[in-house]
Amino acid sequence: MADHPDFEKLAAWWLGDLPAAEGEKVEEHFFGCERCAARVEWLAGLSDGVRATVRAGRVGLFVSKRFVEALVQAGLRLREYGLEPGGSVDCTIRAEDDAVLSHIRAPLAHAKRVDVLWRVSVNGEDQGEERVADVPFDAAAGEVAFMPPAAALKQMPSHTMTVRLVAVDEAGERPLGDYTFRHTAG
After folding, report:
1. Which among 95, 106, 115, 153 counts the fewest CB atoms within 10 Å?
2. What are the residues facing 182 on neighbouring strands?
């Protein structure tokens, strides 16, 4: 490999997402290149920091199926909820749970970009709306998977969260589904 692989290629190699032949070329290069070996070492440290942050429940994430599988393999205890468009669920998180995973299902086959809007209400008092643009989604499975920050969720009082998925493209926005989570403090 004459040129240094870009960061995306190194990250794909690190995650095992490159075809075998290409992965072997990248691996051979970075073992012989001090600069790329340092970048891979930095990536490994970043990966460890992300794992620790997720394990501690300090961050909310929209996640992939592969990420969830890695968490389960690492021994995290997940409490899972699934919702269809228009659906609602009574939910909680317990002290023994490491995380909550919400499978928010929608017709995503033709979506180019998905935004999530959510609104939290505590004791009937609206806490305002937030929007997260361009979240990862699994079009084939028809779902957005979300893990709220577990540490914060364990501290929150009972509340209701309404979620709307919106498809965004050149023509504008179209709603994909509305969902209601009725959280009971554990």
Report:
1. 95
2. 90, 160
